[in-house]
Amino acid sequence: FVSRLPAQPLDGELWLGRGRFEEGAGTLRHAVALDAPWRALRYMVFDLPGAEGAFAQRAARLAELCRAQRFDALQAVAQRTLADRAALARWFDEVVRGGGEGLVLHRADALWRPGRSEAVLKLKPVADAEALVVAHVAGRGRLEGRLGALQVRTPEGVEFLLGSGLTDTQRADPPAVGSVVTYRYRSVTASGVPRFASFVRVRDPARS
């Protein structure tokens, strides 16, 4: 797979298909690469790190580079220009309804730069839900002596660790076992575990 890629640096992600994140991740976790699963993977690329020119120009060069490589697994992510916010909203809704996680918005005139940039924004739907705190998990490293994560249980009986989104104050005095907390998340795994879950607040007892 790697030997078929061009020598030029690429920025992209290995992709198996919408709703198949866990299956794709499983392919990468095998100690010995399995031929058939790797043949199903695609390397979806969306930029040329370090290249000159605006993003629109780099995207055009990237599309040509992928075509010239004649490797079906190497694909340039299709880019489109949207006229206004209404068009963006329609495209966003269409992608999410089709099982996509959201969109990456990029200024067409932006030069390449490493790290985070205001020229690139992720637009994703965010859902929230509630879960029961069933245990406290001690922190490690920087968080030693404080809460590392809350072990929580959803109404469906799925348990997971909720550590993101907690402040240092909340880690020093965490929500009590038995309390109900609200968290945000983007999607769920095949086993029902929320992905990218982040703590929001403790539910007001008056709402119980």
Question: How is this fold's topology laid out?
Answer:
Elements: E1 11-15, H1 21-29, H2 35-40, E2 42-47, H3 55-69, E3 74-76, H4 85-97, E4 103-106, E5 120-123, E6 127-138, E7 147-153, E8 159-162, H5 168-172, E9 180-185, E10 187-188, E11 194-195, E12 198-202
Parallel strand pairs: 2-3
Antiparallel strand pairs: 1-2, 4-5, 6-7, 6-9, 7-8, 9-12, 10-11
Descriptive account of the structure:
The protein is α+β, with helices and mostly antiparallel strands. Helices cover 23% and strands 29% of the residues. It contains five helices and twelve strands. It has helices at residues 21-29, 35-40, 55-69, 85-97, 168-172, and strands at 11-15, 42-47, 74-76, 103-106, 120-123, 127-138, 147-153, 159-162, 180-185, 187-188, 194-195, 198-202. It has a five-stranded antiparallel β-sheet with strand order 8-7-6-9-12. A three-stranded mixed β-sheet has the order 1-2-3. The chain has a two-stranded antiparallel ribbon with strand order 4-5. The N and C termini lie far apart (54 Å). The relative contact order is 0.11.
What is the gist of this entry?
This protein has five helices and twelve strands. 23% of the residues lie in helices and 29% in strands. The chain is α+β, with helices and mostly antiparallel strands.
From the structure above, extract its key features.
208 residues, alpha+beta, 3-stranded mixed sheet, 5 helices, 23% helix, globular
Task: State the end-to-end CA separation.
Answer: 54 Å
Which assembly state applies to the chains in this document? Answer: single chain
The overall average pLDDT, rounded, is: 91
Beta-strand proportion: 25-35%
Separate helix tally: 5
Shape: globular
The chain-level structural class is alpha+beta
* DSSP strand count: 12
- Main β-sheet: number of strands, strand sense, barrel status? 5 strands, antiparallel
The neighbouring-strand order within the major sheet is 8-7-6-9-12
Spell out the helices and strands N to C.
Answer: EHHEHEHEEEEEHEEEE
- CA-atom Rg in angstroms: 21 Å
